[in-house]
Amino acid sequence: MNTKTVLIGVGAVAAAAVIGVGGVWAYRNHVRQAEEAAVRTVATTYTQAFAKRQYRKLATVVDTGQLKGPDYQYTKKTMIARNQAVFDRVGASDIKIQKLAVKKLTKTEYSMRFNAKMTTKLGPLTVTDYTTTIRKVKGQWRVRWLPAMLFPQMSGTATVQLTHTTPTRGELLDRNGSPLAANGTAKEAGMVRGQLGTGQTLTDNLTQISAAFSVPVSTLQQLLAQGWVTDENFVPIKTVTATPTLTGVTYQTVSQRTYPLGEAAAQLTGYVGEVSADDLKQHPTLQAGDQIGKAGLERAYNTQLAGKAGGSLTIVDQNKVVSTLIARKKQDGKTIRLTIDADKQAKAYAALAGQKGAVVTLAPKTGQLLTLVSAPSYDPNKFVAGISQADYDAYANSQDTPFTSRFLQRYAPGSTFKMITAGVALDNGTITPTTTRTIAGLKWQKASSWGDYYVTRLHEAASETMAQALAHSDNIWFAQTALKMGSTAYLKGVTPFLTQKSALPLTQPAAQLSNTGKLASDILLADTAYGQGQLLMTPLQQATAYTALVNDGNMQLPTLRLDQSAKTTQVLKATSAAAVKAALLTVVSASDGTAHGLASLNHQIAAKTGTAELKTKQNTAGETNGFLMAEDAEADSYLMLALVEGVQGTDVVTTMTPYLSSLY
Questions:
Q1: Of residues 374, 377, 405, 415, which has the active-site annotation?
Q2: Owning domain of residue 39
Q3: Is pLDDT at 17 greater than 50 in this prediction?
Q4: 661 among known catalytic residues
Q5: pLDDT in tens, 31-73
Q6: How many domains does one find in the chain?
Q7: Which of 7-21, 221-235, 461-475, 478-492 is predicted least confidently?
Q8: What is the 3-state secondary structure (H, E, C) of 45-84?
Q9: In CATH, what number is assigned to the domain containing residue 69?
Q10: Which CATH number goes with the domain that contains 642?
């Protein structure tokens, strides 16, 4: 047998030894890194579940065999429920984990620390030094849960206490300090169980109460069955306006939001109501029973009006406060003074007398809105009190659409827009104040290519200046003016009036020149010139546009708050604006002017009527909307734009004359 001896030099032996040691080190380092990664995964799973309030997922990485201590004992199920209850109580949301750190303590144990930032019912809260351990249990790394993982200051016997102080809601006042939305009182009906009787007597009494207050008998029975109710307690039913005498029913005075103008300002003020489940999700600092703005300015200004709740969030152990997490004084809501004039608002609403329409009145030099009226309307006081289903259905199903804010709805402005066409034409030299057009007949077309389409007018005049054309509201005169100008020049001049960018807390659609934003045909250009075609503007946008005629060509944007001002935009030359305003005086002073009815007021009034026809085919009958713009040409104290659906522009003159008279 042959044998062979292999001799390894000293250097080779040393190299082999180094390789062996290096391999062991690399292996151990790999094991250590894998272990740390596993621990960090567990820590991340726990804290992410904590942040998302996913307590069942959180429990999957908790050592459920170690859920007891000297002063506590939980199961997996009760630990999940305890987390849910505590963080529900404080209203925890938007939780963010900060400074998560793990550190090895022993072969089988790591420490875990983190901070948590969250929103509570009393505002933001940062909790520091959540501390526990992560241990290896049956080959798996698990978090040790203890009461301090709710809040670090908690023991097994501690509880979280939340006190809540509701702030006083700010009021909405008019320019003179009169209330538009105020903190008033109301009557609340309630039952006294001991006075209702038993058996059939109880049934009869509940039936009468149900009929009187439109509350189901089953609901009344549920109210009486509440655990706290005794024979002597006052059991609230609802806030009421009438107080009929009923067996077992008494009344008490309670605080309640009130709207003194009622229907006259409903679309403007809106109303408040009790927070809903959706409200609580969006506003975590609120709690059940709180009031929130549901519509109108109550909703738009809710943050300022509502203020901030006060109270404290404490940890109490054996009837002693061991830690105060948050302590905050309530901040009452801010009272907001509006530019609205309550007296004018009420009178403008009364002038409409139930007709479908809107009245926008503003101070043209400042843009301060004096009225924003929409009719028909609804009573916001009914909503605060808890509107009955029957009353709500009557509003919701009404063909009058009382919830619609007509001053924010788009309409074809009709002939009132001729004022803008005139101003633009003066600006670019298409016409002068003395330009005279000779027109024959009551209908006209540019060319035979228009087929059977004609521009029509109601007043036949052989020749007319700009002022006469405005007084007669001559469609043909302004159609010819726009066609002479051309669509490019017309579009350039009109666009600034339509691209208003007011900062009002109101939502309204943008004004529209046409469906495409262009004037692609001569017919569309001609129709647009006298406020028809596809042109659409809200009454508020119309009133804003027409301020340029009063302010040397500067369009004054509107404002609703007395402590705010609004910008102006130069849209016409001063000379053009002055010429149009002077011509508008003729609309009233001329015996055949469409607004001559206003001459009875014996004041210098610049005015323009408009009738927008709503029909799909020429020479057919269609509905109409009537408009009236009237401006105090003596002192520029007001500019009014009134809309009444279903009538002619001249009818609006009659409707609004009493209101305009009240402005002097």
A1: 415
A2: 31-156
A3: no
A4: no
A5: 788 999 999 999 999 999 999 999 999 999 999 999 999 999 9
A6: 4
A7: 7-21
A8: HHHHHHHHCCHHHHHCCECCCCCEECCEECCHHHHHHHHH
A9: 3.10.450.100
A10: 3.40.710.10
